């Protein structure tokens, strides 16, 4: 059974897509079978995985409307070593179409459950890249997931956004998905030279304790350059500090999951 995680934050520009594709590539390098689900109509996770969103015959849009299965729509990221359920501008209209449909919050969950029964859809991890707003698309992701990974910058306004996200997760847990929990917080775009970032980092560790991952993703030019080449940063320049940090994060996540399964 796949571990299904949303990479989510209601604040935009905090590195959700960068985290999704690099974690996927990192897990793939560690021998895990990974599916990335791009729920953002901008399709950045799709393009960042080396798949042209303009040339897809089937996408997550078709899966949500139940005109295609996950296995039919998924494409292989040769660069990243994982599969992608891609997104393009069609997805922007999906919310309007979903409003009047039955089980509109559960469309993705049901599709992933069906894929798990198919030998071709046997994944160890499903990583869902959510849009920054609380929408039907985001709710589909949250209703499908076992947990949420939260990338965040160590800045004041990021703390406010985190509070909103935690409240959203609590509401979804209470009303729609009893499996949902915060798996952990990942500090991204971190610059240790900035005193405020150090202070916010310490506040996070004091308040959330072990929920804060030890891995810290630094600001890194090579990570920023990688999407323009259609590659995750851990593939584009595996020796870069940012790439090494994401590989360490992938290893830490695997260890954390093993600990959770043992009930420690």
* Mean pLDDT score: 92
Silhouette:
globular
Number of strands: 8
Secondary-structure element string:
EHEHHHEEHHEHEHEHEHHH
DSSP helix fraction: 40-55%
Strand content: 15-25%
Q: Cα distance, first to last residue? A: 20 Å
Using only C-alpha atoms, the radius of gyration works out to 17 Å
User: Unreliable stretches, pLDDT < 50, 5 or more residues?
Assistant: none
Q: Numbering strands along the chain, what is their spatial order in the largest sheet?
A: 3-4-2-5-1-6-7-8
Give the number of helices. Answer: 12
Largest sheet: 8 strands, mixed
Estimated structural class: alpha/beta
Keywords:
single chain, 264 residues, alpha/beta, 8-stranded mixed sheet, 12 helices, 8 strands, globular
How would you portray this structure in words?
- The chain has 264 residues and is an alpha/beta fold.
- It contains twelve helices and eight strands.
- An eight-stranded mixed beta sheet has the order 3-4-2-5-1-6-7-8, with helices on both faces.
- Helix 1 crosses helix 12 and helix 6 runs parallel beside helix 7.
